[in-house]
Amino acid sequence: MRLTSIVIFSIFIYDGCMPLPVSPRDTRPVILHAFIPKKQVTYGDALRIYIEAEDPAGYMFKIYTVVGHSGYGWYFPDTVFVKPEDQHHFIGYLQWNTFSSKAPSMQEWTQVTISVSITDTSGRESQTVTFPIEFVTERTPQAALPPPFDQANLPRLGHIFVDLINPHHVY
Question: How many C-beta atoms lie closer than 10 Å to residue 108's C-beta?
Answer without folding.
Answer: 11
